[in-house]
Amino acid sequence: CRCNMGKKVNNIFFCLFAISWVAPTAYYGGSQECILSGIMSVNGKKVLHMDRNPYYGGESASITPLEDLYKRFNIPGAPPASMGRGRDWNVDLIPKFLMANGQLVKMLLFTEVTRYLDFKVTEGSFVYKGGKIYKVPSTEAEALASSLMGLFEKRRFRKFLVYVANFDENDPRTFEGVDPKKTAMREVYKKFDLGQDVIDFTGHALALYRTDDYLDQPCCETINRIKLYSESLARYGKSPYLYPLYGLGELPQGFARLSAIYGGTYMLNKPIEEIIVQNGKVIGVKSEGEIARCKQLICDPSYVKDRVEKVGQVIRVICILSHPIKNTSDANSCQIIIPQNQVNRKSDIYVCMISSAHNVAAQGKYIAIASTTVETKEPEKEIRPALELLEPIEQKFVSISDLLVPKDLGTDSQIFISRTYDATTHFETTCDDIKDIYKRMTGSEFDFEEMKKAPDDFCPAK
């Protein structure tokens, strides 16, 4: 329709909704499905992507205008005039940043979706300790300057960072007596005589674990996670995180455009009436009386509630602010991690903040989203430590979502179901899910070595 080709374009779109489709793969749902549809289209597969919503991205959409957000959360009345024009707002429902050297950036490069998106480097990464916010030290220089630690602990932490930077799981000379496949991470911390507070921010703000379960697991993955954080930070400077201008909803839109270029078809506002299964295997999807036939189906859990199970809940609170978060050097964007031990919990609390600098809010306004895994019957009380960091809050939007996972791998039915979004504010766990679905669908690993471009070709806005 953007091509201004008049009635011919409209007729083509009308026909798309009126005929039955035969496609090897059909998709519907959120970002995982959009990313997979783009990847499969690039790989030469015929793709049909259907979405019951009138917008892209499902659960990971960005809501605009602001009036629609008020309606979605049943907030009475209209937004006050002080919040500016409703069209100036693009509010994410799920808080996420991209690791600058992480898996999603590599997927964006592999599929060349970067041509449709602009990114901005997040200004800071912070950790909560003893009721205060501190910048996360992740380099030798920052470790020595940080007020998080005493003088002697700084030296020990610096030695630990040097060890991590030099560590190569393929080179035993870098192990220094540690077996990366057997030695628990708890033992590595003990080797460098690191205290509990340092262990907290290292495991949760650098390695980005949600709980302390990792302490008794082999150290290799934790060391690689810390290396990823440091490498991502080194790429652009201020922090290891990137954020797309105009909101996370731009990501599924970008992959939808990519899919269309490679022959895929995308249908918004398309109701799903029935998944048709024959002899235990999917053969199509029924919508508005017509059948889209397919050999494989990828969808989010909301479309197949009988094939998923609940494993927990996540609470998210979207907060509109008229000020930057205190003690973040007036950053226009940042992430704050509250490690579990600091607030006597089993899982971390996350805060991710963006602003008008990212074209997601009116001038002078900020959007902060707090999230955590629900552990009690009073989730709003659990998230309170994060909200206290944000006060005064102009308006809150609270949601509690079920964490859903597929009951089976989908290899028999050829119905592949993604996991719902967890409480983390990065895309690494989402990318793990995408790679897992890809492997189940194709029988082979997603190979980053086949990328068409190197990461250095990707340059976000300052």
From TrEMBL:
GO terms for biological process: protein transport; small GTPase-mediated signal transduction. The chain crosses the membrane at residues 12-30. It comes from the Eukaryota. Keywords: Acetylation, Cytoplasm, Golgi apparatus, GTPase activation, Membrane, Phosphoprotein, Transmembrane, Transmembrane helix. One of its GO terms (cellular component) is Golgi apparatus. It is a peripheral membrane protein. The keyword RNA-binding does not apply. GO terms for molecular function: GTPase activator activity; Rab GDP-dissociation inhibitor activity. It is found in: Cytoplasm; Golgi apparatus, trans-Golgi network; Membrane. Belongs to the Rab GDI family. GDP-dissociation inhibitor preventing the GDP to GTP exchange of most Rab proteins. By keeping these small GTPases in their inactive GDP-bound form regulates intracellular membrane trafficking. Negatively regulates protein transport to the cilium and ciliogenesis through the inhibition of RAB8A. Regulates the GDP/GTP exchange reaction of most RAB proteins by inhibiting the dissociation of GDP from them, and the subsequent binding of GTP. Interacts with RHOH. Interacts with the GDP-bound inactive forms of RAB3A, RAB3B, RAB3C, RAB5A, RAB5B, RAB5C, RAB8A, RAB8B, RAB10, RAB12, RAB35, and RAB43; binds RAB3D to a lesser extent. Interacts with DZIP1; this interaction negatively regulates the interaction of GDI2 with GDP-bound RAB8A. This is Rab GDP dissociation inhibitor. It comes from Sus scrofa (Pig).
